[in-house]
């Protein structure tokens, strides 16, 4: 990276979420409990789908991959945030900051494509049920997952291309609890107006476009269900409204940070706590724990583990 792109800054200092000791204690307990729930819940989903042959279907494979991405997104930022809540000096190295930005944007891009893939899976299952096994075959499922990783990787590389050659020679304080592009770019010793606009275009409008596409797909599914069966509309509405809630919670902070004209407002810190801490807990509960087949499979897995321990 050209000797850390000829920068004089070797580390960045986080100002954190709040200077209040009571608030920091609350966030410490809150984040720790939710992160434990994220790890346990998402691991349980992945192991259940992996070891239960009844769940080797496209919908559950996409769900297990979503659990993996949620776990990774939280692990990129939450452990560091919990660690920093113990100390007054909250610092991260230059390379660590760039690495965090890379993984946040790569995993975020992957999740966007996965959510679109899951919406497509539900569209085929509800609107074209007779062709579901033909369209959503294992090859298509693998193709969607590979595409999500490729698009996520391209998105992250493009974002980093904007910042790796910027000179950082002055202030090194980031008013946040993690490294994000808008705040990092403002620390550069250069005119970054055009760069900020490009970053907003690459992340903000992509988020808006993806959110719009997902909501349109859900509306189309509901209209199709209503045409075929008015009784099934309430059930579909209940399921899809929960999905839309998770989608809005995931995309809302991204849109706020990259499109809102006043990104220095402290509210964006708490919005991204939703992305890193709350949404990865909601995804398992909404997408899987409400699914009867998934709950039965989890009970089978747990009973199998208990019986194997007794045999030991």
Describe the fold and architecture.
The chain has helices spanning about 1-5, 20-50, 60-85, 95-125, 130-135, 140-165, 180-185, 195-230, 230-260, 265-285, 290-310; strands at about 10-15, 90-95, 175. It is globular, with a radius of gyration of 21 Å. A three-stranded mixed β-sheet has the order 2-1-3. The model is unreliable at about 1-5 (pLDDT under 50). Helix 2 (about 20-50) runs antiparallel to helix 3, helix 2 packs parallel to helix 10 (about 265-285) and helix 3 (about 60-85) runs parallel beside helix 6 (about 140-165). By secondary structure, the chain is mostly helical. The chain is built from eleven helices and three strands.
Q: Describe the largest sheet.
A: 3 strands, mixed
Secondary-structure-based class equals: mainly alpha
The poorly predicted ranges are: 1-6
Strand content range = under 5%
Helix content: over 70%
Main sheet strand line-up: 2-1-3
Short description:
This protein has helices at 2-6, 21-51, 58-84, 94-127, 132-135, 138-163, 181-185, 193-228, 231-259, 267-287, 292-311, and strands at residues 11-14, 90-93, 173-174. It has 312 residues and is mostly helical. Residues 1-6 have low confidence and may be disordered.
Provide tags for this entry.
single chain, 312 residues, mainly alpha, three-stranded mixed β-sheet, 11 helices, 3 strands, disordered N terminus
Helix/strand layout:
Elements: H1 2-6, E1 11-14, H2 21-51, H3 58-84, E2 90-93, H4 94-127, H5 132-135, H6 138-163, E3 173-174, H7 181-185, H8 193-228, H9 231-259, H10 267-287, H11 292-311
Parallel strand pairs: 1-3
Antiparallel strand pairs: 1-2
